[in-house]
């Protein structure tokens, strides 16, 4: 199975070299989607000649980075795609393991809450609160049984990618993925990955840094995705 490993980045000069060096130990085909970085990220990427690079001329958002990764996976006729972040919160050594489960499901989603690897690692309170609430929507409104709505460490069968129409270019993009996966009856498997928080100061940007605003934004995107998919928004889904 030919697997593409994709990393969306924006201004990741502090982490890029160490993360990319480690990713290359575990993946033969690697793509970095540089989402309009204005720091040294583009210069550092030139040191990795074997890595594919897509550069967005300006910062479009996390969802835009993953949408470009979906497109490259299909264009390159890969069998599957693994996605992970570049902030040190995902362990590249787990790439083969995540990809190996693609023989069981269309989407393999990492969960930081299925298993406790390090009891000293505790997520920021507001992020955990929002994750719990959004995960509840997924389970109550979509009939899923997942534990982590927002883990970016995932694997996708290439054959599943045409099901996704990604219009939210920001951090709410995973909600569209979950809704469209259910609408297209894709199979989903969660696997445990370590919870690692190295930098709690990272920002979402603008008003999204306010927890209540961010949650309301996620709710709006989720409801719109449900409506577009022809799924009923009622009861605990509101």
Automatic annotation (TrEMBL):
<dbReference type="InterPro" id="IPR050256">
    <property type="entry name" value="Glycosyltransferase_2"/>
</dbReference>
<dbReference type="GO" id="GO:0016740">
    <property type="term" value="F:transferase activity"/>
</dbReference>
<keyword id="KW-0808">Transferase</keyword>
<protein>
    <submittedName>
        <fullName>Glycosyl transferase</fullName>
    </submittedName>
</protein>
<dbReference type="Pfam" id="PF00535">
    <property type="entry name" value="Glycos_transf_2"/>
</dbReference>
<dbReference type="InterPro" id="IPR029044">
    <property type="entry name" value="Nucleotide-diphossugar_trans"/>
</dbReference>
<feature type="domain" description="Glycosyltransferase 2-like">
    <location>
        <begin position="7"/>
        <end position="161"/>
    </location>
</feature>
<dbReference type="InterPro" id="IPR001173">
    <property type="entry name" value="Glyco_trans_2-like"/>
</dbReference>
């Amino acid at each position: 199975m030919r697997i593409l490993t994709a990393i969306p980045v924006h201004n990741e000069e502090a982490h890029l070299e160490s993360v990319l060096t480690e990713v290359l130990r575990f993946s033969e085909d690697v793509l970095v989607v540089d989402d309009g970085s204005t720091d040294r990220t583009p210069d550092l990427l030139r040191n990795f000649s074997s890595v594919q690079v897509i550069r967005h001329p300006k910062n479009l958002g996390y969802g835009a980075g993953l949408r470009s990764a979906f497109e490259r996976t299909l264009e390159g006729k890969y069998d599957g795609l693994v996605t992970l972040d570049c902030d040190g919160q995902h362990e590249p050594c787990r790439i083969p393991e995540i990809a190996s489960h693609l023989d069981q499901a269309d989407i393999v989603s990492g969960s930081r809450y299925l298993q406790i690897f390090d009891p000293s690692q505790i997520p920021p309170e507001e992020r955990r609160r929002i994750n719990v609430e959004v995960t509840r929507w997924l389970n109550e409104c979509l009939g899923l049984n997942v534990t982590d709505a927002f883990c970016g460490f995932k694997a996708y069968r290439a054959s599943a990618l045409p099901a996704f129409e990604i219009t939210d270019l920001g951090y709410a993009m995973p909600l569209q993925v979950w809704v469209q996966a259910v609408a297209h009856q894709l199979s989903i498997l969660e696997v445990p990955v370590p919870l690692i928080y190295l930098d709690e100061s990272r920002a979402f940007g603008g008003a999204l840094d306010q927890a209540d605003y961010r949650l309301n934004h996620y709710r709006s995107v989720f409801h719109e995705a449900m409506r577009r998919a022809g799924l009923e928004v009622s009861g605990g889904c509101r």
